[in-house]
Amino acid sequence: MARQGGLLKVVGKLDDLSFYKSADGFLVRTKGGVSGDRINNDPTFQRTRENNAEFGMSAAAGKLLRTALRNFMMSASDNRVVSRLTQLMTDVKNLDAANDRGERHVYEGFDIPEGKAVLKGFNFNNRAILSSILFKAYALNSTTGAVNITGLVPKMDLVSAPGATHVTFKAGWSKVDFATGEFETVMSNEVNLPINSTASNVALTQAAAPTLGTGLNVFTLQIEFYQEVNGNQYSLKNGGYNSLAVIEVI
Prior knowledge:
By secondary structure, the protein is of the alpha+beta class.
């Protein structure tokens, strides 16, 4: 692909050229030369069909997790989270040693500790890595889903968004069944604190555990910054500081 130059940027198709806008700017590429029918039936493209099948499963697994965490991601995600999650699910799928190429599954990769370790620590907003925003230890109780941060001093223990006056903490507990496509997410209480030098304890608790019987337990922690104006708090959705990360996978 090539990058468009000049003052006039074009979006659309012209003959065999496609002009489009992406996160990398205005680009242009030529139309592919192999027909879909040949890819689907020619033995030469057997490896391509296998790759396409597994890519589709990885993309679907990433979409399932994004859907499960949609309410969190609305204020904490980056514009490459779809591709990054698809690549992560591909890495998990590659750990499936039970099936042949073209038939490997993400959920079977998650059956082993190595697969769970791939997802643990994933940040949905790559511009706000949790470990670069929060410098205070947190403790997760994986039986109840509770997350506690003791003695947090916002001025010292957080890298705050410019202009932020307050910060809110939330925890999530998702049960995601990558085999059936089912999920359930429960959200903790919110703890909202002024960004000052006062030490506070952050206690995030779940009213109840997810009731979905099967699937992967995915625990998340979110930090979102606000600015108070005339007694009202407004979310600072500039994308640079709101953080959402997977803190445990069981």
